DNA sequence: TATTGTTATACTCTATAACTATA
DNA sequence: TATAGTTATAGAGTATAACAATA
């Protein structure tokens, strides 16, 4: 390297706060991507990821959902949901059966293996989340999740309202 | 089981808070996607989007960046950055010139058209952001951005530290 | 040897369109 | 007519590999 130190190479830490405070889209995209990359480490190897974990957690709390329900909550297309269901069913982590009240629909439930898989990954998921949040205080971590939840719920309510105006 | 009315179809607003509080990956992914969809409305028509706006804003505050600098800040691959630069240069919004201190590198600067484009879209970007944030109080909106900025900076510092350990 | 920009190529993710069986 | 699941296909976005110029 040079001794007299030429023009300083712009550093990430120098540019980021100055340029992007207020740029919510960037901050959200970057945060999501950073976390996604770190979450990959938890699941490395078996071809499943944090999305599969989230769906199994959803089914853990409430079984018998239709694929369209899962699609709505996860904000996925029907066909994308189909693919994810195939991946999970192919590994024996959930099962599709006939819905008792609508024979067009599937009723999706966890299998015992699915419950075990979720339980086996749960601690590492939570650890990785906390590691990702380590630059925030405990209070800030809770607050962040509350704010995000408010936003997601707010968007959903607003879109429902718009839809009912038709 | 239910009495008379058929089993209630699980509502988004019913499932979301119960199942996903604590699922940071889901909340971040969902929030980012919701905002991205709403931001599309601002740019509909010209093939550019919020990412282009962010890059032009970065260059507005600090010109003469290399493509690798932009790639680092935006967390993009070199080749992806290349494509985005082509899109912006093709519309005359930025220009590539020889870097004065490293002849391998490009120095990227806004053109006048680029400055105008950014200015023309700025108000609608900010409006859409505020609309997206409308379920939060003003204080919460500021706080959210601060928390996200802390997280992104924290991840960056941690990765740099890891890297220097090699 | 390593880095910058570039090109060509491959891969991943997701959505669109069309079909079937039910409602 | 509309909806749930399914399948095949196409598109967007991104990364990998290789090369030339320069450090």
Q: Which descriptors apply to this entry?
A:
homodimer, 166 residues, mainly alpha, Arc Repressor Mutant, subunit A, 2 domains, two-stranded antiparallel ribbon, 7 helices, 2 strands, disordered N terminus, DNA-binding, DNA-binding (chains A, B), transcription regulation (chains A, B), Tscrpt_reg_MarR-type_CS (chains A, B)
What does this entry look like structurally?
Two copies of one chain form a homodimer. Chain A is mainly α. Chain A has two domains: 30-135, Orthogonal Bundle (Arc Repressor Mutant, subunit A), CATH 1.10.10.10; 137-166. The first copy, chain A, is built from seven helices and two strands. Chain A has helices at 12-20, 24-43, 50-61, 67-74, 78-90, 112-132, 138-164, and strands spanning 94-98, 106-110. In chain A, strands 1-2 form a two-stranded antiparallel sheet. In chain A, a hairpin with a 7-residue loop joins β1 and β2 (106-110). In chain A, α3 packs across α6 (112-132). At the A-B interface, α1, α2, α3, α4 and α6 of A face α1, α2, α3, α4 and α6 of B.
Please give the structural blueprint.
Two copies of one chain form a homodimer.
Chain A: H1 12-20, H2 24-43, H3 50-61, H4 67-74, H5 78-90, E1 94-98, E2 106-110, H6 112-132, H7 138-164
Helix pairs in contact in A: 2-6, 3-6, 4-5
Chain A binds a DNA duplex (23 and 23 nucleotides) through residues 66-68, 76-80, 82-83, 96, 99, 102-106.
């Amino acid at each position: 390297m040079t001794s007299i130190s030429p023009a300083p190479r712009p550093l990430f830490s120098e540019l980021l706060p100055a340029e992007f405070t207020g740029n919510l889209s960037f901050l959200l995209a970057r945060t999501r991507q950073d976390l996604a990359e770190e979450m990959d480490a938890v699941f490395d190897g078996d071809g499943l990821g944090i999305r599969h974990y989230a769906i199994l957690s959803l089914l853990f709390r409430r079984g018998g959902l239709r694929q369209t329900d899962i699609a709505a909550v996860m904000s996925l297309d029907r066909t994308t949901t189909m693919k994810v269901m195939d991946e999970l069913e192919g590994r024996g982590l959930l099962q599709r059966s006939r819905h008792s009240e609508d024979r067009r629909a599937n009723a999706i439930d966890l299998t015992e293996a699915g419950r075990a898989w979720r339980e086996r990954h749960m601690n590492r998921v939570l650890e990785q989340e906390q590691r990702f949040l380590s630059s925030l205080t405990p209070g800030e971590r809770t607050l962040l999740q509350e704010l995000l939840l408010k936003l997601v719920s707010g968007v959903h309510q607003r879109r429902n309202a718009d839809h009912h105006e038709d």
